[in-house]
Design brief:
The chain is α/β, with parallel strands linked by helices. The chain has 10 helices and 6 strands. It folds into 2 domains: 157 residues, 3-Layer(aba) Sandwich (Lysozyme-like); 47 residues, no CATH class. The longest helix is centred in the middle third of the chain and has 22 residues. 31% of the residues are buried.
């Protein structure tokens, strides 16, 4: 997936992204206007407001404006807030009028977010909304259309983009626990990347209790 870079010049870091950052999750926004991704990034870079974001996505392209190792002012939770200091911010364009351009932008954003989750070894619970940090009704049109619907779009991309070999191999971060679960006969050793049903969870709990 191609990502264009139009990065903020270093002489503006003190305004737009003054702190180093190791991102811990993704924060989704809607732009609340009808500008393209290129225009959103250009405007963010050109002004001196303490408002900034890492990526803008429209119906055709993804553009990065701030390096991922710098914070951005996007979540509305203050200078030390987790959203602003730990969140990788994504603005989905064309949300003011909505329609086909916004729908296409949202689809492209879902693909990009799924790619980021895979890249960082994160799961769907690492996808947050602006509203989670400041209470602002954002991403407004995505919320209107259904937040769970959007998460399902990301999850579909997340699962659909994994080949069979990857689906049957536990992720690096889970490998040790997965192998332990198999050794202790709590798990059957199949489908490491599938979701867990309540029935399966009950079986694991029963086996765990019986081992004591």
């Amino acid at each position: 997936m191609q990502v264009k870079k139009k990065l903020l010049p270093a002489n503006k870091y003190s305004i737009k992204c003054p702190n180093s950052m190791v991102p811990e999750f993704i924060v989704v926004h809607n732009t609340a206007n009808d500008a393209s991704a290129a225009n959103e990034i250009s405007y963010m870079i050109s002004n001196n407001n303490q408002v900034s974001f890492h990526y803008a996505i429209d119906d055709k392209e993804i553009i990065q404006g701030i390096p991922e190792n710098r914070n951005a002012w996007h979540a509305g939770d203050g200078a030390s807030g987790r959203g602003n200091r730990k969140g990788l911010s994504i603005e989905i364009c064309y949300s003011k009028s909505g329609g086909n351009r916004f729908i296409a932008a949202e689809k492209l954003a879902a693909k990009f977010i799924a790619q980021k989750l895979k890249e960082k070894g994160w799961r769907i619970d690492k996808v947050k909304k602006h509203q989670d940090f400041s209470g602002k009704y954002c991403p407004h049109r995505t919320l209107d259309m259904g937040w769970q619907r959007f998460l399902d779009m990301v999850q579909k991309e997340l699962v659909g983009g994994v080949n069979m070999a990857d689906k049957n191999t536990p992720s690096a971060w889970a490998k040790e626990a997965w192998e332990w679960g198999k050794k202790e006969k709590l798990l059957d050793g199949t489908r490491p990347k599938d979701t867990l049903t309540r029935e399966e969870f009950a079986v694991v709990l029963k086996r765990l209790v019986e081992k004591k």
